[in-house]
Design a protein that fits this description.
Among the domains are: about 35 residues, no CATH class; about 90 residues, Sandwich (Immunoglobulin-like). α3 crosses α10. Strands 1, 3, 4, 6, 7, 8, 9, 10, 11, 12 and 13 form an 11-stranded mixed beta sheet that branches. Strands 14-15-20-19 form a 4-stranded antiparallel beta sheet, with no helix packed on it. Helix content is about 20%, strand content about 25%. The chain is α/β, with parallel strands linked by helices.
């Protein structure tokens, strides 16, 4: 929080009017005051006292309470702060890159969705973009917004649809701590502790050096911008076609710095108790050098965020990359890494391989993404007996000239459209050919007359694959491969 600039008691942005505090967990209130100043906090007929330390920092925990509100929270020191419209409910962090940052106003049927977004039980606190070389104590954030047609357009679309579903199902307030930044890699969201936990992550620092190591890079970037601006001006004068837009330079604000976004946008939130995290990221790690490390990095990040919050293994729910025609990259490999991350306790994955857009990296259907994440929350976080995942490949066994594939979440398997597509098999030569597939209970048997001894299987293994396997709840199977 930095050194105290004045004697008044002050609070960080996330502790403000309209905030949601997590039900069932102690209410953590912290702030700044004059060193040695007594501070008291009162909430729901409970109060706690603290004394600011020699840095002017103070912190109290009030007893956990059930959902409800609105309530008033009062902080008293030399001055008095009264927070109005405080709710007790479910608090989720939403984070990742541009598909999480994507605003509700731009989603499918965005104008109608915004006009109908009158949900006083949904609140959002937006953390502004910021990078830091070391962990910060206070986020650069706005105060809480109540969801109305006037505010909802700027909400994260995925977060909004998730919160709407959870709030309606549970009948409680849902608060979103929105910390996302488009075009950012997973290593920027990891703490340096997490990045140093495994020697295989060391290349992340080499990638960063490749971006910043050339001292002429800023000057060359400025020259490109100047040349482009002159070309635009000339085109306007002469009536010629304008030049193509400059390529987006993701690193202009150091947003790729290893640990930089964790330090500035996540670390300051870790003192605020939460129910869990929803995450949509991975596109920026689809390069040939980054993809092989994604599973390890992502798992390490989840475990480290949980360590930082210190409230146990909260649910961590994430979106698997959708179908998209990538000019270069390892999209199937990142989807596989995300599938492997389900080995981490209390994780859930929303498969979106069927609701993307082949030519749009930002598919507009965010409604189903939010709904599928909410299904995972209902099962994993709230213990509802609901199916929350499409079929997930578990194991396989050769069966003569065929291979039998076993799945979890496989009740009432079906091929949408009535025809099995997307399966491939290969023999020892690893030359894959399309395979026939037949459902047998919760298993699928695949074969091809061209491969008498199949040893390898792939399903939906492409940037934009054919996807036909669903369970009876209408949820698609995750892409996978076996044998390699």
């Amino acid at each position: 929080m930095g050194l105290l600039a004045r004697a008044d008691v002050t609070l960080p942005a996330q502790i403000s009017d309209h905030m949601v505090v997590q039900r069932g967990l102690p209410v953590h209130i912290q702030g700044k005051a004059a060193p040695g100043e007594p501070v008291s906090v009162a909430f729901r007929d409970q109060s706690r006292n603290a004394v600011a330390d020699d840095l002017g920092l103070w912190s109290v925990y009030l007893p956990a309470s059930d959902a409800g509100g609105p309530f008033t929270l009062i902080v008293s020191g030399r001055n008095k702060i009264t927070l109005q419209d405080v709710m007790v409910g479910e608090v989720w962090v939403d984070s990742g890159q541009s598909n999480m940052e994507f605003a509700l106003s731009g989603a499918r049927d965005g104008a109608a969705e915004v006009a109908a977004a009158n949900h006083p039980n949904i609140r959002l606190l937006h953390v502004n973009r910021k990078v830091s070389a070391f962990p910060l104590m206070e986020a650069n954030a706005r105060t809480w917004d109540v969801c109305t047609p006037q505010t909802a357009g700027a909400f994260t679309a995925v977060g909004y649809f998730f919160a709407r579903e959870v709030s309606e199902r549970l009948g409680v307030a849902v608060g979103l701590l929105d910390a996302s930044w488009g075009g950012t890699p997973v290593e920027a969201w990891m703490s340096l502790r997490a990045l140093s936990s495994d020697a295989q992550f060391i290349p992340a620092f080499a990638w960063w050096w490749d971006m910043i190591g050339d001292p002429t890079k800023p000057a060359r970037r400025d020259k490109r911008l100047q040349d482009w601006q002159q070309a635009v001006a000339l085109a306007r004068q002469t009536g010629a076609p304008p030049p193509r837009d400059l390529p987006f330079e993701s690193n202009m604000e150091n947003s790729w710095m290893p640990g930089g976004l964790y330090n500035a946008m996540i670390a300051p939130l870790t003192g605020y108790p939460i129910a869990g995290v929803i995450w949509y990221q991975g596109e920026q790690n689809t390069t040939a050098e980054k993809a092989p490390l994604y599973a390890g990095m992502f798992g390490a990040m989840i475990r480290d965020w949980r360590r930082a919050w210190g409230i146990g293994d909260f649910p961590f729910l994430f979106v698997q990359l959708a179908n998209f025609t990538a000019p270069n990259g390892k999209w199937p490999e990142i989807r596989e890494a995300q599938l492997q991350t389900l080995a981490v306790a209390k994780t859930g994955m929303a498969v979106t391989i069927d609701i993307g857009e082949a030519r749009n990296i930002h598919p507009l259907n965010k409604q189903d993404v939010g709904k599928r994440l909410a299904l995972a929350a209902r099962a994993i976080a709230y213990g509802e007996n609901v199916e929350y995942s499409g079929p997930l490949f578990r194991t396989a066994a050769p069966e003569g000239s065929a291979i039998r594939l076993y799945f979890d979440h496989a009740t009432s398997l079906q091929f949408r459209g009535g025809e099995a597509k997307g399966f491939q098999v290969a023999g020892a030569d690893r030359k894959f050919v399309p395979a026939a597939a037949a459902i047998d209970g919760t298993a699928v048997v695949v074969s091809s007359p061209a491969v008498p001894r199949p040893a390898y299987v792939k399903y939906a293994w492409a940037d934009v694959p054919e996807c036909t396997l669903y369970n009876g709840d209408g949820l698609p199977a995750s892409p996978f491969r076996w044998g390699e």
